[in-house]
Amino acid sequence: MASNYEKLGVEGEKQEELLPPLSPISQCLNSSTIPLTILAVFEFEVPVQESHCLEFLEYHFVPCTPRFSSVIDTDSKGVERWRKIEQVIYQDHLIVPTFPEELSATEYDELCKQYMSKIGTEKFLGTRPLWELHLIKYPTLSGASTMVLKLSHAIGDGYSYISVLFSAFHRADNPSVPLTFPPLSFGSKGGKPKLWSLVSKLKETLFDVYWSYKMLMFEDPRSAVRSGTRQLGSKPFNIASITIPLEQVKEVKSKVGGTVNDVVTGLISYVIHLYMVRMGKVSSDGDMTLLVMVNMRALKGYKSIEDMMKASSWGNYSRFLHIPIPRNGRGGEEADPIEFVLKSKEIMEKKKRSLVIYLIDPLLNTIRTIKGQKGLAGFIRSNFYNSSAMITSLIGPKEKLAMVNQPIGSFYFLVTRVPQSLTFTVATTMGDLKLVVTMEKGFIDSEVFTSCMNEAFKNIYKAACGKNMEK
């Protein structure tokens, strides 16, 4: 598509403003080594038109941060910096695909997912700000129309983009009232640590340091969910999702005495178990590792998303922890679903005692000092590639969203160009928990995996609560 940016020519460069340099992590995420992309998907209850999207971009989205009106340049000293441009050409960022006419919602749903796979593996043009808005004007199984915001991860992390939801969208029931978010669960607990507590912290920290070293030097074995293909970030993928009422997740949480994260991690490990059993590829050889994305803002003790937004903490504060995926080599289909949740709870409690999260940034800084920026990007990529799967999550608003008075029925996100066969994203918003998975196309059987996802939480809920899920 021809770009109107080229028409600005030299005159468009006179008013450009030089902004701060990219952080080391943002430089990694803008490199060819690990160029992660975020797709934020909004499924509308009504047909949305181009005029709605252009109004949203000009008056609500782009004003959220100067980075939406900036490109990345390298200055005379070789430093990558944000460079604010004089004018954003909104029409160049709005893309409206054309599908065949008069198909069913099921067919359009599949075409929509194929389209997201296509744009999710494509590079951004470096001559314009690193975001796009794709409007799919066809009814799918989940909405009358679909809007996909494609965003470079170099701009910011998930909590940065939550601030976009906070300021660019509004409540569907009352636009004049601000959106509200659930309280954050992270933050340190007070009190003086006891001797046994210190010993336990040291033990878990040493174990995590060992596991991190192991993941740097060795990769997980190839399995039914890990092909080990080197070019995974550019390969097409299938998408599947399940939506679970958040109240039912909290019921399971209460029964096992854990957290929502414990339940979700147990659910993922149980889904993987069911899939491997059904594919006849259960193996006890070697460990399987889940790369869990965590946010370093947790160390600052924010009590709410609103506090985080007031701190203007834009940027990339996401880091990763290695979590052994709970395994159950016995029982096959009959394995106890709750066992996976309980094992996940045990693992996550150990992680909370570990101090390894405080060592992540010093480690990354040391690697950058010794091996340079390329070495840091390679280290981050190897952590993704060597793991079997990844999970990242976001906390969204409690109320139903709207964009320029167009009501949104559901919201989820994907992280693409990840060098893994299997990735999970979790969004808790509008009273639901949405678990979305991307699967390497042609390697993971998406129909079998989707059926495992549909069954897994039902089995966990029945085993924990003694009743079937309500429809």
UniProtKB/TrEMBL annotation:
Cellular component, GO annotation: endoplasmic reticulum membrane; plasma membrane
Q: Is-annotated flag, keyword Endoplasmic reticulum?
A: yes
Q: Which GO terms describe its molecular function?
A: diacylglycerol O-acyltransferase activity; long-chain-alcohol O-fatty-acyltransferase activity
One short Pfam family name for this protein?
Answer: WS_DGAT_cat
The listed locations are: Cell membrane; Endoplasmic reticulum membrane
Topological type in the membrane: Single-pass membrane protein
Instruction: Report whether Transferase shows up as a keyword of the record.
Output: yes
Pathway given for this chain reads: Glycerolipid metabolism; triacylglycerol biosynthesis; Lipid metabolism
Q: What does it catalyze?
A: a long chain fatty alcohol + a fatty acyl-CoA = a long-chain alcohol wax ester + CoA; an acyl-CoA + a 1,2-diacyl-sn-glycerol = a triacyl-sn-glycerol + CoA
Which part of the chain is the O-acyltransferase WSD1-like N-terminal domain? 119-264
GO BP terms: namely:
triglyceride biosynthetic process
PANTHER family noted in UniProt: O-ACYLTRANSFERASE (WSD1-LIKE) FAMILY PROTEIN, O-ACYLTRANSFERASE WSD1-LIKE ISOFORM X1
Every O-acyltransferase WSD1 C-terminal domain range: 314-460
Sorted alphabetically, the keyword list is: Acyltransferase, Endoplasmic reticulum, Transferase
Which family does the similarity line name?
In the N-terminal section; belongs to the long-chain O-acyltransferase family.
What name has this protein been given in UniProt?
Answer: Diacylglycerol O-acyltransferase
